[in-house]
């Protein structure tokens, strides 16, 4: 009579671990690399120095059939040409398809605009070197993400931070920019935590509605602004340091068209630095508090996808080329022809990231999150491009800066929201 051979305990453990990994179906890796800017690269686009470094951050997610990547670069905005180059770099390093590489700008106001020609040949050369430095940082961060890919669990939670404020204020001559404590402001801090097998964070995805403009008016004693990752960079740096600089904290700027930092520099010699440190610690501290309360688990759904959609809305004439310079009570909005508006939906199980190019009003972000069919939803702007403002209807009625600057006619955002909510439920 033949006897069945017993499986060694260590082999049984490996088999069970493999089964668990297959069932969870999710792997994650992350990388971060500085954008090298030396003395020879300055001045560029008016910036005369570097206050704090800029980074490229990459989070790679995969299962048995697909890999997707989230990329955030510390820049004000990204041209379509640069986005395509970034997607190609990430694809080569990670094997994620270019269409599954979602690229965002952190939307710091304190960085050079790398698109467009320089004023002189020397300026153009410095811009070209900066683009090369961006591409090198993306390549390094992508390689790190691919190399660190490992079985992962994930979780989502949200907290509250008061470092933002509505920036639309009534004046004697109409609505303009300032700090409106009574205006609508989404204070929610959305956090996705990705843990490795050791239950330590591989990466955190952070979503909050604020423009990173603390340092915009700050200057060095000799004159001129400094390059800075600003509030997004300060907050993400604080989070990463709290975890020993092991995980990557990736910023997704939220629906912040009408949201500014609660405190900003008013000009002068580096007077924005203490404010930047303070607000960065407050926002970053809330991210850490939320992250520590997240209990990660295997994805409740095997869905890992990037879906692109598009809606047609009505364009608005004379903007943004004729950007408003002062408040107005009699500004005439003029509708133009139809224009396509793209959007992206990233699914991580029952957690979703809605991405758009246009800058949305705070309450539009709230509306999308409240109506989403998913357990957790992040609303990100400046995704795969930039398209100025798409404010809500009330902005046109009040004639705000965002409405006058928008390339979209009143009612456009309603069409976009309805399409997004429908597609989130379908996918």
Automatic annotation (TrEMBL):
Q: Where is the signal peptide?
A: 1-23
This protein's superkingdom?
A: Bacteria
Q: Which organism is it from?
A: Pseudomonas eucalypticola
Q: Which key words are in the record?
A: Signal
Q: What is this protein called?
A: Neutral/alkaline non-lysosomal ceramidase N-terminal domain-containing protein
């Amino acid at each position: 009579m033949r006897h069945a051979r017993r499986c060694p305990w260590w082999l049984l453990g490996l088999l069970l671990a493999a089964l668990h990994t297959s069932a969870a179906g999710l792997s994650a890796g992350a990388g971060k690399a500085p954008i090298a800017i030396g003395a020879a690269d300055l001045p560029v686009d008016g910036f005369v120095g570097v206050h704090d470094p800029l980074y490229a951050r990459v989070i790679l997610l995969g299962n048995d059939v697909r890999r997707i990547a989230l990329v955030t670069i510390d820049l004000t905005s990204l041209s379509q040409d640069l986005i395509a180059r970034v997607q190609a770099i990430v694809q080569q390093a990670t094997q994620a398809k270019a269409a599954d590489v979602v690229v965002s700008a952190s939307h710091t106001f304190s960085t050079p605009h790398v698109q467009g020609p320089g004023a002189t040949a020397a300026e153009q050369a410095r811009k070209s070197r900066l683009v090369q430095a961006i591409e090198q940082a993306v390549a390094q961060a992508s390689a790190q993400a691919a190399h660190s890919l490992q079985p992962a669990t994930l979780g989502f939670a949200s907290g509250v931070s008061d470092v933002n404020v509505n920036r639309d204020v009534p004046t004697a001559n109409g609505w303009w920019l300032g700090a409106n404590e009574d205006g609508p402001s989404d204070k929610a801090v959305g956090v996705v935590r990705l843990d490795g097998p050791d239950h330590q964070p591989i990466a955190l995805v952070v979503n909050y509605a604020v423009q990173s403009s603390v340092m915009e008016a700050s200057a060095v004693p000799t004159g001129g602004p400094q390059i800075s990752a600003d509030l997004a960079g300060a907050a993400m740096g604080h989070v990463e340091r709290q975890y020993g600089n092991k995980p990557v904290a990736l910023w997704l700027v939220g629906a912040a068209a009408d949201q500014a930092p609660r405190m900003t520099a008013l000009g002068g010699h580096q007077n924005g630095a203490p404010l930047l440190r303070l607000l960065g610690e407050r926002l970053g501290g809330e991210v850490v508090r939320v992250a520590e309360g997240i209990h990660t688990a295997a994805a409740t759904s095997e869905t890992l996808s990037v879906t692109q959609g598009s809606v047609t809305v009505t364009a608005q004439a004379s903007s943004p080329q004729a950007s408003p310079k002062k408040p107005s009570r009699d500004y005439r909005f003029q509708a133009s022809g139809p224009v396509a508006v793209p959007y992206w939906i990233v699914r991580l199980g029952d957690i979703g990231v809605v991405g758009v190019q246009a800058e949305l009003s705070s309450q539009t972000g709230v509306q999308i999150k409240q109506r989403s069919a998913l357990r957790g939803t992040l609303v990100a702007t400046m995704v795969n491009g930039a398209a100025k403002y798409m404010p809500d209807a009330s902005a046109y009625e009040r004639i705000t800066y965002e409405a006058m600057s928008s390339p979209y006619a009143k009612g456009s955002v309603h069409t976009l929201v309805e399409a997004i909510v429908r597609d989130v439920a379908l996918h």
